[in-house]
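Sync notes, pocket subgroup
Present: LS, DG
LS reminded everyone that the earlier model was apo-only. Rerun requested with coenzyme A included. Inputs:
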Amino acid sequence: MSVDLEKLLRPVDTPLPPYPPKVITLADGSKMVVRQIGRDDIPDLLPHVEALIHHERDYYDIVSVRVYAELLAYYRYRVVDEYVLIGQINGELSAIVNGRIYSPEIGMSYHTLGLKRGLRIGAHCFAAKMEYHIDVLKQEEVLIVAESPIGFRRWMIEYNLEKKFEIPHELGGSPSYSLTREIFNRARGSLIVGSRPVPQDLLDEAMEKILPPSDPPKAPPDFLAATRAKYDSTGTSIIADPKRKKVSHA
Ligand SMILES: CC(C)(COP(=O)(O)OP(=O)(O)OC[C@H]1O[C@@H](n2cnc3c(N)ncnc32)[C@H](O)[C@@H]1OP(=O)(O)O)[C@@H](O)C(=O)NCCC(=O)NCCS
C-alpha cells in the first residue's frame, strides 16, 4: 500500500542532458570547478546550507532556508525536473545553484548561494546555470527573481534582464525577470566564462569528495561591522545572531 502511494507522490523526471563540468580561474588565481551533482550528493550539502539559516546579513537566512527545502525536495523526490550545480575550489564547496525545467522552452531559476565571499563565485555559478538552460537544454529563456540587493545587482542590473512582471515566479509569485537567449549571447565571454574540458586532476579532486567550505559567510564580529554592510544599516544581522544577547529596540 505505502509503495503504491509513493508512486503517486513521486513525480517522474524528464531525462535531461547533463551539465558538462567547467573550470573558472578566479580573481585570486584559484581554480573553481563547476559541475552537476546528483541526488546521492545532497546529504553532503545540507549541513553547510543549514549552518546559514540564521545568518540574516545579505539575506543568507531566507535564501539558505529555501535552498535547504529545494535540495531536500530533490533528494526526496518532491519536485520535478530540478537540477543542482556546485562550485568547488580544491574540493571545497564554494557555491550551490539550482533551478528547474518549467517547460521545454522555459527554465525556472531557483537560487544561488555563495559559500565563500568576495571572488564573484556566486556570479560565476549563476552564469553556469544560465549556460545549462540556454546552451545545454536549448531553452529560450530563464525566469529569475532576486531575493537580495546583491542578487538584484548581480542578475537584473549586470545582465540587464528583461521585465516579465506579468508572469508570477515559482518562488512566491514575485514578478519575474527573464534572461533570454539574446541576453545570454551578449554576456558570453564577459559574464559567462570558464573552459572545458576540466583538467583531469582538478576533476578527480572535485569528484572524490565535496569538502566543507573552509571560509563560509560568518556573522559580523561587532555592531560596527554590521553597519558597514551597505544594506544592513540597522545591524539586524547582529540582532538575529542567536548566540548574542537580546538587543532591546526600546
Ligand atoms: C548573491 C550572491 C550569490 C553573490 O555572490 P558573489 O557574486 O560571489 O558576490 P559576493 O557575495 O562575494 O560579493 C557581493 C558584494 O559584496 C562584497 N563582499 C565581498 N566580500 C564580502 C564579505 N565577506 N561580506 C560581505 N560582502 C562582501 C563584494 O565586494 C561584492 O561587491 P560588488 O558587488 O561591488 O563586487 C551571494 O552574495 C549570496 O549568496 N548571497 C546570499 C544569498 C543570495 O542573496 N542569493 C541570491 C538570491 S537572488
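DG: The longest strand covers residues 92-101.
LS: Residues 25 and 155 are 21 Å apart (CA to CA).
Action: DG to write up.
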